[in-house]
Amino acid sequence: MLNVGKIEEGFVLDHIQAGMAMSIYHHLQLDKLDCTVAIIKNARSDKMGKKDILKVECDVNMLDLDVLGFIDHNITVNVIKNGDIVEKKELKLPKQIKNVIHC
């Protein structure tokens, strides 16, 4: 069993379609931020068979998560403060997003 420690402040993106974690990492531009990110690929899931998970330790106001609603509205966003889940955000398709997918 893989054990990734809890984070104090940030968010956990759960129920990501298996194999999509790196795409979401880039769409959220996490590579440009100075924050800790744990990427778990192909984790076992009773609900999905396999899933990816992203744990991001940073100020929760640093990121615009609207892009996730465009990519996959089934992703679960758990907001973490002081090591505890304080909010579960429900994703929906945003009215407008810019500079996400380039042709």
3D architecture notes:
This protein has 103 residues and is mainly beta. It has one domain (9-89): Aspartate carbamoyltransferase regulatory subunit, N-terminal domain (Alpha-Beta Plaits, 2-Layer Sandwich). It contains two helices and five strands; from the N terminus they run βαββαββ. A five-stranded antiparallel sheet has the order 2-3-1-4-5, with helices on one face. Strand 4 (76-81) and strand 5 (84-89) form a beta hairpin. The longest helix has 7 residues, at 21-27. The mean pLDDT is 86.
Element pattern in H and E? EHEEHEE
Structural class: mainly beta
Low-pLDDT parts are none
What is the mean pLDDT?
Answer: 86
Shape by Cα distribution: globular
Overall CATH class = Alpha Beta
Helix content: 10-25%
Number of strands: 5
Please give the domain count: 1
The end-to-end distance, rounded to whole angstroms, is: 40 Å
CATH architecture: 2-Layer Sandwich
CATH topology annotation: Alpha-Beta Plaits
CATH superfamily heading: Aspartate carbamoyltransferase regulatory subunit, N-terminal domain
Rg value: 13 Å
Structural features:
103 residues, mainly beta, Alpha-Beta Plaits, five-stranded antiparallel sheet, 13% helix
Short description:
By secondary structure, this protein is mainly beta. It is built from two helices and five strands. 13% of the residues lie in helices and 39% in strands.
Secondary structure topology:
Blueprint: E1 9-17, H1 21-27, E2 36-45, E3 49-57, H2 66-71, E4 76-81, E5 84-89
